[in-house]
Write a structure and sequence with these properties.
By secondary structure, this protein is of the alpha/beta class. Helices cover 54% and strands 12% of the residues. About 1% of the residues have low confidence.
């Protein structure tokens, strides 16, 4: 991915963007894996990230506010070749419960994993067929398979092993296979069985039933009426009597010859009715029956028992009967079980070998977790529990947390952890999942373009630099390409420096009449260095430097020095402001900036204040949403001076004004608000001046970053409103 083409129209507010980002090198520019794009607030940074996310997730992009506008999106990794979803990874600022799609494919030899996946697919396919068969035989309701119920009944750990072993232990007993499992065992009936009373009464019924069976001249404990009915059915099905065979049955010591299926069935039914009609057994059934009148579900179960009274005796050991039922279903599903066992047997060696390698590969997973634990400052440590299942079965990683408060350590689940963590700490937890996803792509050699959308927001500086150091490392992976999108100028400057991103790949977003563009960053280090070199040639640099030189004059000469006071009179309206000339400005600059001893400014007798107003007016007329710092500094100075002129004229108390020695704009605003409480529109404009134009703009980026992040359009609008006041 040497060249990335981006052509967008009407994508989430981006009216138009046509950009080409070149990662490959040239004669003058070395190759590089990363771009950093700084975009002030309102420059559609999030919209761009969202558009890339649409590509990643296979969605069409759109303009949400103006859906009727035609949307066009073409993102290519080479001329005319659209970028593929799998080659994109958009890292959002924060997702509370994020799990990367690639996490489950981590860290097993690709060839072995492919063999494993083929084996598992075959096993899963035959298991699915088996469960479908069991669902039909058991009458299991709904769309879900009975897998969880079977596991609950037999308490096994590995379903593969359980079903494979069953194939060798089938006994052919299908006596209960025609019973509907859920009609007998459901939430209500199981709860009733477990309640105690019903269980005891069922056991009493069973004991009496067994007593009657043992005394039967025809039946026995091992050959009850259910078994006798099965014998009758099988003989009839297999044409026993049709072949003129007869059956000798012992009944009370006498031998009876049965010559037809009808005679046998009548004999069995008569004995069944004799036993089930016993008065004492009937009384015990009535005690059970009372328990089955408590709700609709149990009444339905009672009706089922009425049609199948023979299962009452089995319910004395209802958990055992659950197993008997499923065993009958397993026997009825014998072909499907044998098919599954064969598929499992053929794949066991591949699974065992892959499991062995997965165990050996734990060190790679451990390194991801250790990297997080060591680099990020959070009150918890992480442990991966299901390493092997994540790798082999595609399960999401099960992360356990150990919370530490300096006095002790306590295990805690993710839900509770998220309730106590700060926003920055939550973001750190999100970063862990990002690390897993990146590691997955790294291990699989997946060529990836990462769109990193303000990943360091809300982090303290220790964690912010941990993130930057991590991206510095992965930027060296030859098949990774990184594009950082940020509205945080300090992060833009830091990431550019740490990753040694060249000038041509350090970009500012610029918007002109709705069209978004990426332009090369003008200032690679401190903008003041550039301004100093153009003081005599570029009046914009000269005006923008005033607050910076004033700041230096404060440090070098003190707040009572003539240079500090003179420069202050160009940032606040003072008694001498109108009389100051460009020569005065030159004198203070030369006295403060030792490398500017030979500075010679043009038009030395012209008004310095007028120069400020002229530069502000030039910018306002052009009204370009310029991201350059000097434009915003000049507009801020012009806005504040015009606002102060207006307030001073209205207040008309020069003693009050002259006595102000700090925070002049705010003091004037407070006085004006008290004097003219009904001037609500003017007060609103003046309050915006206090909010949007900083009192001090210092040399370091932390102080001038807020004004850099502000859209110039807001300043143009405020400049026009303040001009209208005067």
């Amino acid at each position: 991915m040497d060249v990335l083409g981006i052509q967008l129209e009407n994508c989430y507010g981006i009216q138009k963007l046509d950009a080409t980002l070149t990662f490959k090198g040239s004669a003058k520019i070395p190759s590089g894996s990363a771009f950093s794009v700084y975009a002030p607030n309102g420059f559609m940074k999030t919209s761009l990230a969202r558009t890339f996310m649409d590509v990643q997730e296979g969605r069409n992009s759109q303009d949400l506010i103006f859906p009727a506008r035609r949307t066009s999106r073409l993102i290519t990794s080479a001329p005319a070749i659209p970028i593929t979803p799998e080659s994109l990874f958009v890292i959002k600022p924060y997702v509370e419960r994020y799990a990367g799609a690639g996490t489950s494919t981590l860290l097993v030899n690709p060839k072995l994993r492919h063999e494993y996946e083929e084996a598992v697919r075959n096993i899963d396919s035959t298991q699915e067929s088996l469960l479908k068969t069991l669902k039909e035989i058991s009458g299991w309701p709904g769309k879900a398979s009975p897998a969880s119920e079977i596991k609950d009944v037999f308490q096994f750990k590995n379903p593969y092993d359980f079903f494979a072993d069953l194939a060798d232990r089938l006994d052919g007993d299908t006596r209960f296979s025609d019973l509907a499992y859920a009609d007998i065992f459901n939430d209500k009936t199981i709860a009733a069985f477990n309640a105690g009373t019903l269980h005891e009464q069922l056991q009493e019924y069973m004991l009496k039933y067994q007593e009657l069976v043992e005394k039967s001249p025809l039946l026995s404990k091992k050959f009850n009426h259910t078994g006798a009915a099965d014998v009758s059915k099988n003989l009839q099905t297999n044409g026993f009597f049709d072949a003129n065979h007869t059956l000798n049955i012992s009944s009370g010591g006498e031998r009876l010859e049965v010559t037809s299926a009808k005679d046998l069935e009548e004999l069995i039914v008569a004995e069944k009715q004799r036993i089930l009609g016993d008065k004492e057994l009937t009384a015990k059934f009535e005690a059970v029956d009372k328990q089955l009148q408590k709700n609709v579900e149990l009444k339905k179960f009672r009706e089922y028992l009425t049609g199948h009274p023979e299962i009452l005796a089995e319910l004395g050991d209802f958990n055992g009967f659950r197993k008997k039922l499923w065993s009958s279903y397993f026997n009825a599903a014998k072909p499907a079980l044998i098919s599954f066992a064969a598929a499992y047997a053929s794949a066991k060696d591949v699974i065992a070998e892959t499991a062995h390698q997965a165990e050996a590969e734990k060190t790679k997973w451990a390194s991801v977790v250790a990297q997080f634990n060591e680099r990020f400052y959070v009150p918890f440590k992480l442990v991966i529990q299901n390493q092997q299942d994540v790798i082999l079965k595609g399960e999401p990683p099960k992360v356990t947390f150990e919370f530490q408060d300096g006095q002790g350590t306590c295990g805690v689940d993710e839900e509770k952890l998220l309730q106590v963590l700060s926003q920055g700490e939550k973001r750190a937890l999100y970063i862990l999942n990002v690390l897993f996803e990146i590691q997955a792509r790294r291990e699989s050699n997946q060529q990836t373009l990462m769109i990193i959308d303000d990943i360091a927001d809300s982090f303290d500086y220790k964690n912010k630099y941990a993130i930057i150091e991590y991206f510095n490392e992965i930027s060296k992976v030859p098949f990774f390409r990184l594009i950082f999108l940020t509205h945080n100028f300090d992060f833009h400057r830091t990431i550019s420096s740490r990753l040694q991103i060249t000038r041509s790949r350090r970009l500012f977003a610029k918007k002109t009449q709705g069209t978004l563009a990426f332009v090369e960053e003008k200032y690679q280090k401190n903008p003041f260095t550039t301004w100093k070199g153009g003081l005599a040639k570029n009046p914009a640099f000269l005006v923008a430097s005033i607050p910076f030189v004033r700041n230096l004059a404060e440090y070098c000469h003190g707040i009572t020095s003539p240079h500090y006071l003179m420069l202050t009179s160009l940032l606040h309206v003072k008694a001498d402001s109108a009389s100051l000339t460009i020569r005065d400005l030159e004198t203070s600059f030369k006295a403060t900036l030792l490398d500017q001893a030979n500075l010679s400014l043009p038009n030395p007798t012209n008004s310095a204040m007028q120069l400020i107003y002229d530069e502000a007016e030039t910018l306002a007329i052009k009204a370009d949403d310029d991201v350059e710092l000097e434009s915003k500094v000049i507009l801020s100075i012009g806005i504040r001076l015009k606002a102060e002129e207006f307030m001073i004229t209205k207040i008309n108390d020069y003693k009050f004004v002259n006595d102000i020695n700090s925070n002049q704009t705010f003091e004037l605003y407070s006085k004006f608000s008290l004097m003219f409480p009904d001037a609500s529109n003017q007060i609103m404009v003046l309050s915006q001046v206090n909010l949007m134009t900083p009192e001090n703009i210092h040399l370091n980026s932390f102080m001038y970053e807020p004004i850099l992040d502000m859209s110039a359009l807001h300043l143009y609008d405020l400049y026009g409103k303040v001009k209208a006041l005067v």
